[in-house]
Amino acid sequence: MRNFIIRRVALGIFITFFGAMVVYAIIRSLPSSYVETVARERASNPLSTKTYQEWLDQLNEVYKLDVGIIPGYFGWLGNAIKGDFGESWHYGIPVTEKFNQVIWYSVIINIITFFVQMFIAIPLGITAARNQYSKTDYAISIFALAGISLPTFFLATILKYVFSIKLGWFDLYGLTGRYFSTMTPWQQFWDMAYHMVLPVVTLTMLSIGGLMRYTRTNMLEVLNSDYIRTARAKGLPENKVINKHAFRNTLIPLISYMSFLLPSMFSGALITETLFQIPGIGYISYQAMVRGDIPFAMFYTTFMLILTQVSLILADIMYAVVDPRVRVN
Fold this sequence. Notes:
Layout: H1 2-28, H2 34-44, H3 52-62, H4 69-81, H5 95-130, H6 135-149, H7 152-166, H8 185-195, H9 197-223, H10 226-233, H11 238-258, H12 261-267, H13 270-275, H14 281-290, H15 294-322
Helix pairs in contact: 1-15, 2-3, 5-6, 5-9, 5-12, 6-9, 7-9, 9-11, 11-15, 12-15
Protein backbone atom coordinates (compact mmCIF):
# COMPACT_ATOMS: atom_id res chain seq x y z
CA MET A 1 0.00 0.00 0.00
CA ARG A 2 2.83 2.41 0.82
CA ASN A 3 4.52 1.89 -2.56
CA PHE A 4 1.17 2.25 -4.29
CA ILE A 5 0.47 5.57 -2.56
CA ILE A 6 3.96 6.84 -3.45
CA ARG A 7 3.42 5.95 -7.11
CA ARG A 8 -0.01 7.57 -7.13
CA VAL A 9 1.30 10.75 -5.50
CA ALA A 10 4.11 10.95 -8.07
CA LEU A 11 1.61 10.45 -10.88
CA GLY A 12 -0.66 13.10 -9.34
CA ILE A 13 2.21 15.61 -9.26
CA PHE A 14 3.01 14.81 -12.90
CA ILE A 15 -0.63 15.31 -13.96
CA THR A 16 -0.95 18.51 -11.93
CA PHE A 17 2.23 19.96 -13.44
CA PHE A 18 1.18 19.48 -17.05
CA GLY A 19 -2.48 20.19 -16.35
CA ALA A 20 -1.59 23.57 -14.86
CA MET A 21 0.65 24.26 -17.87
CA VAL A 22 -2.24 23.62 -20.26
CA VAL A 23 -4.53 25.88 -18.25
CA TYR A 24 -1.90 28.64 -18.17
CA ALA A 25 -1.46 28.41 -21.94
CA ILE A 26 -5.22 28.63 -22.51
CA ILE A 27 -5.63 31.61 -20.18
CA ARG A 28 -2.70 33.42 -21.80
CA SER A 29 -4.39 32.89 -25.18
CA LEU A 30 -7.71 34.43 -24.18
CA PRO A 31 -8.79 37.36 -26.39
CA SER A 32 -9.59 39.55 -23.36
CA SER A 33 -6.64 41.09 -21.55
CA TYR A 34 -6.63 42.71 -18.14
CA VAL A 35 -3.40 44.58 -18.72
CA GLU A 36 -4.69 46.13 -21.95
CA THR A 37 -7.77 47.42 -20.14
CA VAL A 38 -5.72 48.88 -17.27
CA ALA A 39 -3.16 50.38 -19.66
CA ARG A 40 -5.95 52.05 -21.62
CA GLU A 41 -7.50 53.46 -18.43
CA ARG A 42 -4.19 54.81 -17.15
CA ALA A 43 -3.22 56.30 -20.50
CA SER A 44 -6.56 58.14 -20.73
CA ASN A 45 -5.98 59.75 -17.34
CA PRO A 46 -5.18 63.47 -17.88
CA LEU A 47 -2.45 63.29 -15.21
CA SER A 48 -0.69 60.38 -16.94
CA THR A 49 2.66 61.10 -18.53
CA LYS A 50 2.91 57.74 -20.32
CA THR A 51 1.34 56.54 -23.50
CA TYR A 52 -0.83 53.45 -23.81
CA GLN A 53 2.06 51.40 -25.20
CA GLU A 54 4.38 52.46 -22.37
CA TRP A 55 1.82 51.43 -19.76
CA LEU A 56 1.23 48.15 -21.61
CA ASP A 57 4.94 47.32 -21.73
CA GLN A 58 5.33 48.11 -18.01
CA LEU A 59 2.38 45.97 -16.94
CA ASN A 60 3.44 43.08 -19.17
CA GLU A 61 6.86 43.15 -17.53
CA VAL A 62 5.36 43.21 -14.03
CA TYR A 63 3.10 40.22 -14.73
CA LYS A 64 5.70 38.35 -16.85
CA LEU A 65 3.50 38.56 -19.93
CA ASP A 66 6.39 39.92 -22.01
CA VAL A 67 7.93 36.45 -22.28
CA GLY A 68 6.67 33.27 -23.91
CA ILE A 69 4.11 30.96 -22.39
CA ILE A 70 6.63 28.35 -21.21
CA PRO A 71 9.00 30.82 -19.47
CA GLY A 72 5.96 32.63 -18.06
CA TYR A 73 4.57 29.38 -16.68
CA PHE A 74 7.83 28.41 -15.00
CA GLY A 75 8.04 31.90 -13.53
CA TRP A 76 4.53 31.47 -12.10
CA LEU A 77 5.36 27.94 -10.90
CA GLY A 78 8.46 29.12 -9.04
CA ASN A 79 6.40 31.67 -7.10
CA ALA A 80 3.54 29.20 -6.54
CA ILE A 81 5.88 26.65 -4.93
CA LYS A 82 6.81 29.37 -2.43
CA GLY A 83 3.10 29.98 -1.72
CA ASP A 84 3.00 33.25 -3.66
CA PHE A 85 0.12 33.16 -6.15
CA GLY A 86 0.15 36.88 -6.73
CA GLU A 87 -2.51 39.52 -6.35
CA SER A 88 -5.90 39.12 -7.97
CA TRP A 89 -6.23 41.56 -10.83
CA HIS A 90 -9.99 41.80 -10.53
CA TYR A 91 -10.38 41.92 -6.73
CA GLY A 92 -7.21 43.86 -5.94
CA ILE A 93 -6.12 41.67 -2.98
CA PRO A 94 -3.88 38.58 -2.72
CA VAL A 95 -5.42 35.53 -4.37
CA THR A 96 -5.19 33.36 -1.25
CA GLU A 97 -6.84 36.06 0.85
CA LYS A 98 -9.82 36.30 -1.49
CA PHE A 99 -10.01 32.51 -1.63
CA ASN A 100 -10.14 32.26 2.17
CA GLN A 101 -12.92 34.86 2.28
CA VAL A 102 -15.32 32.92 0.05
CA ILE A 103 -14.38 29.23 0.11
CA TRP A 104 -16.20 28.37 3.34
CA TYR A 105 -19.58 29.47 2.00
CA SER A 106 -19.33 26.86 -0.76
CA VAL A 107 -17.88 24.22 1.57
CA ILE A 108 -20.65 24.57 4.14
CA ILE A 109 -23.40 24.48 1.52
CA ASN A 110 -21.92 21.43 -0.21
CA ILE A 111 -21.23 19.53 3.03
CA ILE A 112 -24.84 19.98 4.11
CA THR A 113 -25.98 18.93 0.63
CA PHE A 114 -23.70 15.88 0.75
CA PHE A 115 -25.14 14.50 3.99
CA VAL A 116 -28.72 15.26 3.01
CA GLN A 117 -28.07 13.56 -0.33
CA MET A 118 -26.63 10.45 1.37
CA PHE A 119 -29.53 10.13 3.82
CA ILE A 120 -32.12 10.44 1.03
CA ALA A 121 -30.61 8.88 -2.10
CA ILE A 122 -29.05 5.69 -0.71
CA PRO A 123 -32.09 4.48 1.31
CA LEU A 124 -34.41 5.28 -1.61
CA GLY A 125 -32.12 3.47 -4.04
CA ILE A 126 -32.07 0.38 -1.80
CA THR A 127 -35.85 0.52 -1.37
CA ALA A 128 -36.34 0.70 -5.14
CA ALA A 129 -34.06 -2.31 -5.65
CA ARG A 130 -35.84 -4.38 -3.00
CA ASN A 131 -39.20 -3.62 -4.64
CA GLN A 132 -38.16 -3.93 -8.28
CA TYR A 133 -40.92 -3.16 -10.84
CA SER A 134 -43.37 -2.22 -8.07
CA LYS A 135 -45.22 1.08 -7.75
CA THR A 136 -42.64 2.17 -5.20
CA ASP A 137 -39.83 1.45 -7.66
CA TYR A 138 -41.55 3.36 -10.44
CA ALA A 139 -42.29 6.34 -8.19
CA ILE A 140 -38.68 6.54 -6.97
CA SER A 141 -37.36 6.16 -10.53
CA ILE A 142 -39.60 8.98 -11.79
CA PHE A 143 -38.44 11.20 -8.93
CA ALA A 144 -34.79 10.38 -9.69
CA LEU A 145 -35.15 11.04 -13.42
CA ALA A 146 -36.88 14.34 -12.72
CA GLY A 147 -33.98 15.41 -10.52
CA ILE A 148 -31.46 14.43 -13.19
CA SER A 149 -33.34 16.14 -16.02
CA LEU A 150 -34.32 19.47 -14.45
CA PRO A 151 -31.98 22.37 -15.32
CA THR A 152 -30.52 24.18 -12.33
CA PHE A 153 -31.85 27.60 -13.32
CA PHE A 154 -35.37 26.22 -13.88
CA LEU A 155 -35.57 24.42 -10.53
CA ALA A 156 -34.09 27.37 -8.63
CA THR A 157 -36.52 29.77 -10.30
CA ILE A 158 -39.51 27.57 -9.44
CA LEU A 159 -38.41 27.27 -5.80
CA LYS A 160 -37.92 31.02 -5.50
CA TYR A 161 -41.28 31.72 -7.13
CA VAL A 162 -43.14 29.37 -4.78
CA PHE A 163 -41.32 29.86 -1.47
CA SER A 164 -40.11 33.44 -1.82
CA ILE A 165 -42.68 35.27 -3.94
CA LYS A 166 -45.90 33.35 -3.30
CA LEU A 167 -45.41 32.11 0.27
CA GLY A 168 -42.86 34.69 1.41
CA TRP A 169 -40.96 32.18 3.54
CA PHE A 170 -37.47 33.00 2.23
CA ASP A 171 -35.61 35.94 0.74
CA LEU A 172 -35.04 35.93 -3.00
CA TYR A 173 -31.32 36.64 -2.87
CA GLY A 174 -28.35 36.96 -0.58
CA LEU A 175 -26.65 35.13 2.24
CA THR A 176 -27.70 37.48 5.03
CA GLY A 177 -30.77 39.45 6.00
CA ARG A 178 -31.33 43.18 6.12
CA TYR A 179 -30.54 43.54 9.83
CA PHE A 180 -27.60 41.11 9.91
CA SER A 181 -25.12 43.67 11.28
CA THR A 182 -27.30 44.40 14.33
CA MET A 183 -27.77 40.73 15.30
CA THR A 184 -25.94 38.75 17.96
CA PRO A 185 -23.47 36.08 16.74
CA TRP A 186 -26.02 33.34 17.45
CA GLN A 187 -28.71 35.20 15.52
CA GLN A 188 -26.29 35.79 12.65
CA PHE A 189 -25.62 32.04 12.49
CA TRP A 190 -29.30 31.20 12.20
CA ASP A 191 -29.85 34.02 9.70
CA MET A 192 -27.18 32.58 7.39
CA ALA A 193 -28.54 29.05 7.87
CA TYR A 194 -32.01 30.34 6.98
CA HIS A 195 -30.73 31.88 3.75
CA MET A 196 -28.95 28.63 2.80
CA VAL A 197 -32.13 26.54 2.81
CA LEU A 198 -33.20 27.14 -0.79
CA PRO A 199 -29.67 26.74 -2.28
CA VAL A 200 -29.24 23.46 -0.35
CA VAL A 201 -32.66 22.21 -1.46
CA THR A 202 -31.81 23.09 -5.07
CA LEU A 203 -28.47 21.28 -5.01
CA THR A 204 -29.95 18.27 -3.18
CA MET A 205 -32.81 17.79 -5.61
CA LEU A 206 -30.41 17.98 -8.55
CA SER A 207 -27.86 15.55 -7.10
CA ILE A 208 -29.88 12.78 -5.45
CA GLY A 209 -31.25 11.47 -8.76
CA GLY A 210 -27.93 10.20 -10.08
CA LEU A 211 -26.84 8.66 -6.77
CA MET A 212 -30.27 7.09 -6.30
CA ARG A 213 -30.17 5.40 -9.70
CA TYR A 214 -26.56 4.33 -9.15
CA THR A 215 -27.44 2.75 -5.81
CA ARG A 216 -30.47 0.96 -7.24
CA THR A 217 -28.51 -0.51 -10.16
CA ASN A 218 -25.67 -1.81 -8.00
CA MET A 219 -28.00 -3.15 -5.32
CA LEU A 220 -29.96 -5.11 -7.95
CA GLU A 221 -26.72 -6.65 -9.18
CA VAL A 222 -25.71 -7.64 -5.65
CA LEU A 223 -29.15 -9.03 -4.76
CA ASN A 224 -28.92 -11.43 -7.71
CA SER A 225 -25.60 -12.83 -6.51
CA ASP A 226 -25.20 -16.44 -5.39
CA TYR A 227 -24.11 -15.59 -1.85
CA ILE A 228 -27.28 -13.53 -1.31
CA ARG A 229 -29.43 -16.47 -2.39
CA THR A 230 -27.40 -18.69 -0.05
CA ALA A 231 -27.92 -16.29 2.85
CA ARG A 232 -31.65 -16.28 2.24
CA ALA A 233 -31.72 -20.08 1.92
CA LYS A 234 -30.13 -20.33 5.37
CA GLY A 235 -33.12 -18.46 6.78
CA LEU A 236 -31.43 -15.17 7.63
CA PRO A 237 -33.84 -12.24 8.14
CA GLU A 238 -34.24 -10.08 5.06
CA ASN A 239 -33.05 -6.93 6.85
CA LYS A 240 -29.85 -8.71 7.88
CA VAL A 241 -29.29 -9.96 4.33
CA ILE A 242 -29.70 -6.44 2.96
CA ASN A 243 -27.91 -4.41 5.63
CA LYS A 244 -25.04 -6.76 6.50
CA HIS A 245 -24.29 -8.67 3.31
CA ALA A 246 -25.66 -6.79 0.30
CA PHE A 247 -25.15 -3.16 1.33
CA ARG A 248 -21.42 -3.47 2.02
CA ASN A 249 -20.74 -4.77 -1.47
CA THR A 250 -22.95 -2.05 -2.89
CA LEU A 251 -20.61 0.51 -1.34
CA ILE A 252 -17.69 -0.52 -3.55
CA PRO A 253 -19.04 1.06 -6.77
CA LEU A 254 -20.45 3.97 -4.77
CA ILE A 255 -16.94 4.92 -3.68
CA SER A 256 -16.05 5.61 -7.32
CA TYR A 257 -19.13 7.79 -7.62
CA MET A 258 -18.48 9.66 -4.39
CA SER A 259 -14.75 10.19 -5.04
CA PHE A 260 -15.65 13.20 -7.18
CA LEU A 261 -17.79 14.77 -4.47
CA LEU A 262 -14.73 16.18 -2.68
CA PRO A 263 -13.65 18.36 -5.62
CA SER A 264 -17.27 19.40 -6.17
CA MET A 265 -17.46 20.69 -2.59
CA PHE A 266 -14.60 23.10 -3.23
CA SER A 267 -15.44 23.96 -6.82
CA GLY A 268 -18.72 25.53 -5.76
CA ALA A 269 -22.04 25.49 -7.55
CA LEU A 270 -21.65 28.22 -10.13
CA ILE A 271 -25.24 28.49 -11.38
CA THR A 272 -26.86 28.02 -7.97
CA GLU A 273 -24.55 30.51 -6.28
CA THR A 274 -25.20 33.02 -9.06
CA LEU A 275 -28.99 32.65 -8.97
CA PHE A 276 -29.11 33.06 -5.19
CA GLN A 277 -26.22 35.57 -5.13
CA ILE A 278 -24.18 33.47 -2.72
CA PRO A 279 -20.57 34.78 -2.69
CA GLY A 280 -19.08 31.28 -2.92
CA ILE A 281 -15.96 30.14 -4.72
CA GLY A 282 -17.86 29.07 -7.86
CA TYR A 283 -19.37 32.48 -8.50
CA ILE A 284 -16.23 34.39 -7.49
CA SER A 285 -13.99 32.24 -9.70
CA TYR A 286 -16.27 32.70 -12.69
CA GLN A 287 -16.19 36.48 -12.27
CA ALA A 288 -12.39 36.39 -12.11
CA MET A 289 -11.96 34.15 -15.14
CA VAL A 290 -14.26 36.07 -17.50
CA ARG A 291 -12.24 39.19 -16.71
CA GLY A 292 -8.93 37.55 -17.56
CA ASP A 293 -7.73 37.38 -13.95
CA ILE A 294 -4.76 35.07 -14.57
CA PRO A 295 -3.47 34.88 -10.95
CA PHE A 296 -6.84 33.87 -9.49
CA ALA A 297 -7.70 31.51 -12.36
CA MET A 298 -4.32 29.75 -12.11
CA PHE A 299 -4.58 29.33 -8.36
CA TYR A 300 -8.12 27.99 -8.52
CA THR A 301 -7.56 25.52 -11.36
CA THR A 302 -4.34 24.21 -9.81
CA PHE A 303 -6.09 23.80 -6.49
CA MET A 304 -8.84 21.78 -8.21
CA LEU A 305 -6.27 19.61 -10.01
CA ILE A 306 -4.58 18.76 -6.71
CA LEU A 307 -7.89 18.14 -4.97
CA THR A 308 -9.04 15.77 -7.72
CA GLN A 309 -5.86 13.72 -7.45
CA VAL A 310 -6.19 13.52 -3.66
CA SER A 311 -9.81 12.36 -3.93
CA LEU A 312 -8.86 9.60 -6.38
CA ILE A 313 -6.10 8.34 -4.08
CA LEU A 314 -8.51 8.33 -1.13
CA ALA A 315 -11.02 6.37 -3.23
CA ASP A 316 -8.43 3.69 -3.98
CA ILE A 317 -7.59 3.38 -0.30
CA MET A 318 -11.26 3.15 0.64
CA TYR A 319 -11.71 0.17 -1.68
CA ALA A 320 -9.51 -1.90 0.62
CA VAL A 321 -11.30 -0.56 3.71
CA VAL A 322 -14.77 -1.44 2.46
CA ASP A 323 -13.87 -4.80 0.90
CA PRO A 324 -11.00 -6.82 2.47
CA ARG A 325 -10.74 -8.83 -0.73
CA VAL A 326 -9.46 -5.77 -2.53
CA ARG A 327 -5.73 -5.38 -2.08
CA VAL A 328 -3.20 -3.37 -3.99
CA ASN A 329 -0.66 -5.50 -5.86
